[in-house]
């Protein structure tokens, strides 16, 4: 166009005013679409905005929506307007896009052109900092509606909104990066604090085991030693005395085996997670008064066997603590453990019909805090919820069966390796 009319200047100023105050590209574009419509009537209008690497693009639509905006991003190589996005053509103008081969090629995402009957089309590039960052696409159902003058006006609109849209996208990307960094810092701090609490808990557990050994096992062994010494001094021992001595030794062995099993669950290593959980469940309720009914159900088809030793041990310890909490504090009449799996997830659910645990603080010290820390260390998801309206607690532990980004390596971190953090308590 050789000159710009006052009416066009007024409309461009109106577009500029419509942009003001918006903080995301979609709302900013929708605000300008109305003003653009006063210059170039349309039935459909959208923006295709390139990703930072130029390989994908997002679509922002105004008015009615098509499947172009159903997905977050599309590959540029499949876009009907890729030649404009790649900078190979200065614009596209067509009287009937339904039959224009420039919009249709093998692999083209051109379905919306036919579904919405977008015949007349103008596509002009959006530019910022001297580069194409996207395209403005204007369409009508009727064929043969647009001219070269309309292309020139569309380009002026695109030149006006392009830098603003680009700035909003950059701001949005910076905000996402900041949030991701903040979340990463929070996760790191949670793991640091949790690992510290877990270490303190381990020390308390070691002291408890030392006292158990001193007060119980070592005392029993000292008494046995005195009995053996007495038999030797007398030179003879009656059968009943030997039977009592044998029983004392058997008791010491059982106590030591129990302590060792608590330190490193041999049933888990030999027979797997299901049998280890069942053994601990039965042992935990063996002396309960009144008795506690138990049930274990496994619909996982052996999925736990595909998990690493570190993950199985962490899951066992979390389930162990959930069972212990129910037995010690909830006064349940029934505890049920359910192992289940989906194609990508393995889960263990511990349900009791006791008093319930109320609101759970993940940062709390003690057993529940240790459960959350163990879950965080291996990338598991841990949930506490009411078992029913009548009460009770349901503890759900879920873990992805395939390794995920950001999970602590089973080989690369002592805390996850089981050296002491994941297995010692």
Could you write a compact summary of the structure shown?
It holds the Pfam family HisKA_3. By secondary structure, this protein is an alpha+beta fold.
SS element count, helices = 11
Sheet with most strands: strand arrangement: 3-2-1-6-5-4
Radius of gyration, taken over Cα atoms and rounded to an integer in Å: 35 Å
Helical proportion? 40-55%
Low-pLDDT stretches: 403-425
- What's the CATH H-level superfamily name of the largest domain? GAF domain
Indicate the topology.
Layout: H1 6-19, H2 25-39, E1 44-50, E2 56-62, E3 74-75, H3 82-85, E4 92-94, H4 111-115, E5 120-128, E6 131-140, H5 148-234, H6 239-263, H7 266-271, H8 273-285, E7 293-298, H9 309-330, E8 334-341, E9 345-352, H10 367-378, E10 381-388, E11 391-400, H11 414-417
Parallel strand pairs: 7-8
Antiparallel strand pairs: 1-2, 1-6, 2-3, 4-5, 5-6, 8-9, 9-11, 10-11
Helix pairs in contact: 1-2, 1-5, 2-5, 5-6, 5-10, 8-9, 9-10
GO molecular function, one term: phosphorelay sensor kinase activity
Domain GAF: 24-175
Keywords: Kinase, Transferase, Two-component regulatory system
């Amino acid at each position: 166009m050789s000159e710009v009319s006052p009416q066009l200047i007024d409309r461009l100023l109106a577009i500029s005013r419509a942009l003001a105050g918006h903080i995301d590209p979609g709302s900013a574009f929708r605000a300008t679409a109305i003003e653009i419509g006063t210059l170039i009537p349309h039935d459909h209008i959208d923006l295709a905005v390139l990703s930072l690497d130029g390989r994908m693009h997002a679509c922002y639509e105004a008015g009615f929506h098509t499947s172009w905006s159903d997905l977050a991003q599309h590959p540029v190589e499949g876009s009907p307007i890729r030649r404009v996005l790649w900078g190979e053509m200065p614009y596209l103008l067509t009287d009937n896009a339904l039959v224009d081969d420039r919009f249709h090629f093998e692999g083209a995402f051109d379905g919306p052109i036919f579904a919405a009957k977008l015949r007349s089309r103008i596509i002009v590039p959006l530019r910022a900092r001297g580069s194409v960052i996207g395209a403005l696409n204007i369409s009508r159902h009727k064929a043969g509606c647009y001219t070269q003058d309309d292309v020139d006006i569309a380009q002026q609109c695109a030149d006006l909104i392009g830098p603003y849209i680009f700035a909003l996208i950059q701001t949005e990307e910076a905000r996402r990066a900041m949030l991701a960094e903040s979340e990463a810092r929070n996760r790191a701090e949670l793991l640091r604090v949790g690992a510290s609490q877990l270490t303190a808990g381990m020390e308390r557990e070691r002291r408890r085991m030392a006292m158990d050994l001193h007060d119980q096992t070592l005392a029993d062994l000292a008494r046995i030693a005195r009995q053996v010494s007495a038999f030797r001094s007398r030179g003879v021992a009656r059968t009943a005395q030997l039977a009592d001595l044998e029983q004392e030794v058997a008791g010491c062995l059982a106590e030591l085996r129990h302590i060792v099993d608590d330190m490193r669950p041999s049933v888990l290593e030999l027979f797997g997670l299901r049998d280890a959980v069942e053994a601990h469940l039965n042992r935990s309720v063996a002396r309960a008064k009144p008795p506690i009914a138990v049930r274990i159900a496994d619909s996982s088809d052996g999925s736990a066997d595909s998990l690493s030793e570190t993950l199985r041990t962490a899951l066992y310890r979390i389930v162990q603590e959930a069972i212990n909490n129910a037995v010690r504090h909830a006064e349940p009449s029934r505890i049920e453990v359910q192992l289940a799996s989906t194609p990508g997830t393995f889960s263990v659910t511990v349900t009791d019909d006791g008093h319930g645990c109320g609101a759970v603080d993940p940062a709390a010290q003690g057993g529940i805090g240790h459960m959350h820390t163990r879950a965080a260390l291996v990338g598991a998801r841990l949930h506490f919820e009411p078992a029913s309206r009548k009460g009770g607690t349901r503890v759900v532990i879920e873990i992805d069966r395939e390794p995920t980004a950001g999970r602590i390596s089973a080989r690369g971190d002592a805390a996850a390796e089981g050296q002491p953090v994941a297995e010692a308590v």
